[in-house]
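cron nightly-structures :: item 1 of 1
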Amino acid sequence: MHLTYLLILAGCIIGTLPLELVLHTRVYARWRRLLTALVPVVVGFGAWDVLEIRAGAWRYDPAQVVGVTLPGRLPLEELLFFVVIPTCAILTLEAVRVRRPDWLIGDEP
């Protein structure tokens, strides 16, 4: 199925959306902070993937992707992976901070 990868990413977003809506983690509301975390991931890992694809070190199964290819033959789903998974991780971390404010994570003033 061509939608497998996208469905998995959608499931990740849907699964963590209650953290924003119910626990009010404000991850999406603080979009500049989110972008500060996401841009290095997207640029760094995106470039790495493009280099590895070009070198022939890996490829993506056409049966698992929708076929939208970005420059460097990077599948759309791979770029979305670099946005969705870190966002879900940040949502999870912020949910822990909401529920357990006594837990220190290292960025407290």
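cron nightly-structures :: done
The beta strands are 69-70, 74-75.
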